[in-house]
Amino acid sequence: MAIEYLGLSEINGPLIALEGVKDAAFDEIVEFSINDGAEKRLGRIIEIYEDKAIIQVFEGSEGMSLTNTHTKLTGHPMEVALSPEILGRTFNGIGKPIDGLAPIVGEKRDVNGKPLNPVSREYPRNYIRTGISAIDGLTTLIRGQKLPIFSGNGLPHDQLAAQLVNQSSLGDDTDEKFAVVFAAMGVKNDVADFFKRSFEESGALEHTVMFLNMANDPVVERLITPKVALTVAEYLAYEKDMHILVILTDMTTYAEAMREVSSSKGEIPSRKGYPGYLYSELATIYERAGIIKGAKGSVTQIPILTMPNDDITHPIPDLTGYITEGQITLDRSLNGQGIYPPINVLPSLSRLMKDGIGEGFTREDHQDVANQLFSAYAKVGDARALASVIGEDELSSTDKKYLEFGKAFEKEFVGQGLGVNRNIFETLNLGWKLLHILPKEELDRIDTKILDKYYDSMA
């Protein structure tokens, strides 16, 4: 039964204190009625001290009064309505439609999700094709994996996110259903317009659910957005048997919102001012990816975060790296050379890649080609360092071949351009073409049988 109270005890930014509360619960949703019922707002109970409740107001507390605000405890946590018609729709950060269409009518579900028994998880297999060679070929995204993108301010992670939505698929030879859940947090109006326009023009919006939390939206709303998006993803994956790719951008704005709210609550800060529970909050989001035994669908996550000052040891990328299964790192120097996407393949990795590629998934030579490209590109760095000391003319013929390979690899394999969608066979064939730049005896990471079968045919 909903209980209603008149008046507030205290207002502090987005936080409100209400005294004399009975039977309140943590995470319970609260409805505020202000200006004699002319305006409604939502909040969430985040702390309870005996009969005093601390409430976060999603839309902010501006215009709210201590004396004439009506507060109603709903008796349930934050919920989102779920229905198959949710595909193709655009919502704000807390799940309200902003595309001019009617609200979703369907079963409502707690956005916090249910605890997942680790024993019920299945090991991720098979891959999701992004159409981007540096990802598909060298840091393959596996269904059920969480693979973050580490970026920096000014790098083209927004364009990469849009390209991932537009191009990602399960491949050509499958009849399984695939969809994307896209959640943007703290984005500016021009970036939000770019995302909407890009998805509409490519036709990807038809199989995408989009959540947009704008930069001028209340900061508290940002804390709910990824949870709403993941609740929708779990519904589509585990009840509608779809393979869902969830893209969350930007997790740094999410963590900064958490820091701001924590500071308002007067909590003792931890590293760089972030709350001590930053790790557990990030884990709560990231661990909602995976495959459940008996379910035909899967939830795969690509969280995107901008590293402050390009510092990979910053708490946000540092903790993210502990929780997730690898990372894709964008490089500022590659971006400065006009290479898109500017993915630095050496610090990038996918820890589950080996279990979702090869014969039966991609092609039998995939792992060997990836190993050889990694090895060769690492030697490019050594050759460049040596050339900077003794000059390129003094290098051995083999080192000169590595320099030639490095330029071609960055320009053709990594720098494929915006909107170019390659299938996995085009990516692997391009890898073989680049490896032909090197002497055959340098290809020591490829099995002899694979080398004999593919080397000459891919010339």
From TrEMBL:
ATP synthase A/B type C-terminal domain span: 355-455
Domain ATPase F1/V1/A1 complex alpha/beta subunit N-terminal: 9-65
Domain ATPase F1/V1/A1 complex alpha/beta subunit nucleotide-binding: 131-350
PROSITE patterns: ATPASE_ALPHA_BETA
Pfam family, one: ATP-synt_ab_N
GO annotation, biological process: proton motive force-driven plasma membrane ATP synthesis; vacuolar acidification
Gene Ontology terms, MF aspect: ATP binding; proton-transporting ATP synthase activity, rotational mechanism; proton-transporting ATPase activity, rotational mechanism
Keywords: ATP synthesis, Hydrogen ion transport, Ion transport, Transport
Keyword Ribonucleoprotein: no
HAMAP family according to UniProt: ATP_synth_B_arch
Job of this protein: Produces ATP from ADP in the presence of a proton gradient across the membrane. The V-type beta chain is a regulatory subunit.
Family: Belongs to the ATPase alpha/beta chains family.
Listed name of the protein: V-type ATP synthase beta chain
Gene designation: atpB
